[in-house]
């Protein structure tokens, strides 16, 4: 059971608190225990006048697996010293501590952004960097972080970060199920742009969707930008530009994200050895797979499988399915030669 702490304070943004409740409330099932925490158990008035009643005090943060700080309505508001101390204590205890949108300023005030990647709403990235010059503020990404400290850009990016935290604490399948229930994208990399230059792609860019679908079917083998561009009947330069405009990320980064996501699913649901999963997902070698996976997810593939594989993995992927995947991998190796 994962313990999730939603931090409450006067002036917090209602939308961010609602995101946390949607992701870790009833939709998360029995795998998560969500509790609202504040300085006291007295009702807290959020920005806009909504009132929420805390169930725990900040002392509970030290026992939580995930601590989420909603955004501030006013970045000049001074966070309470007891909140900052509780956030530092939670991080020292091993919690994943996240600040949604302008909640990054609270984490900065607690000293948790020093020397770490950080994100916030693009209108306030300069101010965040000014106040916390040692933070590695990236004005373009959806979310950023690692080593137990995470921050997100504005509004919907908070959903992406929360789903990412579900993935690293409860597994990719749980995150995908929650995303389906919320009718939202199951996975958007933190490295994607906060805003896309072409919100609604014109008709002449529709082939890119077909390119992505084909790439997903062929993830097991090496794919280059040049090959993807040929599928779309475009020059490599034009394809790369349109791909970024449509998705907010580069073709190379998108491919890596999909390979990692596929590997997470196989680690959770199959008996395939790590080396076979590396091949199924298109990594050149098990060593390359382990390096990319560990850098992207934060733990090695074997540790990820131990943490997130169900007690009866065969119920998620039958032995027949596993053998079929293995046979396909073997056939592809001989065919490629």
Automatic annotation (TrEMBL):
InterPro entries, sorted: Class_I_gatase-like, DJ-1/PfpI, Homeodomain-like_sf, HTH_AraC, INH-QAR
UniProt cross-references to Pfam families, sorted A to Z: DJ-1_PfpI (PF01965), HTH_18 (PF12833)
Top-rank lineage group of the source organism: Bacteria
GO molecular function, one term: DNA-binding transcription factor activity
HTH araC/xylS-type domain boundaries: 209-307
PROSITE patterns the record matches: HTH_ARAC_FAMILY_2
Keywords on record: Transcription, Transcription regulation
Protein name: Helix-turn-helix domain-containing protein
């Amino acid at each position: 059971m994962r313990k999730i702490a939603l931090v409450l304070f006067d002036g917090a943004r209602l939308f961010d608190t609602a995101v946390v409740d949607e992701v870790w409330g009833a939709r998360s099932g029995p795998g998560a225990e969500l509790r609202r925490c504040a300085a006291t158990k007295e009702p807290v008035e959020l920005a806009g006048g909504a009132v929420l009643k805390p169930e725990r005090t900040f002392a509970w943060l030290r026992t939580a697996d995930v601590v989420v700080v909603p955004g501030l309505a006013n970045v000049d508001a001074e966070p309470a010293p007891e909140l900052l101390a509780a956030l530092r204590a939670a991080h020292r205890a091993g919690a994943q501590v996240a600040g949604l949108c302008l909640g990054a300023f609270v984490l900065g005030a607690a000293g948790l952004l020093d020397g770490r990647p950080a994100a916030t709403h693009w209108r306030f990235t300069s101010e965040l960097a000014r106040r916390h010059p040692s933070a590695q503020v990236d004005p373009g990404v959806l979310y950023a972080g690692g080593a137990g400290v995470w921050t997100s850009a504005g509004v919907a990016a908070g959903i992406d970060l929360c789903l990412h935290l579900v993935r690293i604490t409860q597994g990719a399948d749980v995150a995908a199920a929650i995303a389906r229930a919320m009718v939202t994208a199951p996975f958007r990399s933190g490295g994607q742009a906060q805003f896309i230059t072409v919100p609604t792609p014109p008709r002449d860019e529709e082939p890119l969707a077909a390119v992505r679908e084909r790439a997903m079917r062929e993830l097991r083998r090496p794919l280059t930008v040049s090959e993807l561009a040929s599928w779309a009947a475009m020059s490599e330069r034009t394809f790369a530009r349109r791909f970024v405009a449509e998705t907010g990320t580069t073709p190379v980064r998108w491919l890596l994200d999909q390979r990692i996501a596929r590997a997470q699913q196989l680690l959770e649901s199959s008996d395939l050895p790590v080396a076979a999963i590396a091949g199924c997902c298109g990594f050149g070698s098990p060593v390359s797979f382990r390096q990319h996976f560990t850098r992207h997810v934060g733990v090695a593939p074997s540790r990820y499988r131990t943490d997130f594989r169900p007690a009866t993995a065969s119920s998620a992927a039958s032995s027949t399915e596993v053998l079929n995947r293995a046979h396909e991998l073997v056939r592809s190796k001989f065919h490629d030669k």
